[in-house]
Amino acid sequence: MKKVTVIYWSGTGNTDKMAEAIAEGAKVEGIDVILKNVSEASSEDIFDADAVALGCPSMGAEELEDSEMEPFVESLNNDKIKGKPVVLFGSYDWGDGEWMRNWEERMKGYGANVIAEGLIINLTPEEDGLNKCKQLGENLARY
What we know:
Layout: E1 2-8, H1 14-26, E2 31-37, H2 43-47, E3 51-55, H3 69-75, E4 85-92, H4 98-110, E5 113-114, E6 119-122, H5 127-142
Parallel strand pairs: 1-2, 1-3, 3-4, 4-5, 4-6
């Protein structure tokens, strides 16, 4: 059975809602979906998956959260990520998505196969945003 792993960090709950919707969308026939907060995850959760979704809101000066998510993402700089289908997502309050563009380039630099533009949603995801999350999850599962 194909495994899709969704790992995220959320401060206000907005990225958590996105992660849950992505996991829901990925639950298509024949797909085992794992949803974990980054505090409960290890890099092996990523390396053992067939496809991966990583989520983190924009923090500070458009950066990844630095105490849990940043070290986790750094741990993925490993040959085991090469070619793995990956999507990125997160919420933001201000800015233009620079943190997501930087994160995409970083993951590509690690060798991950970033299969879609990072999904960013301003503040709390509404129905339209949650539907985009579900679609992203379904696309990842079918990749």
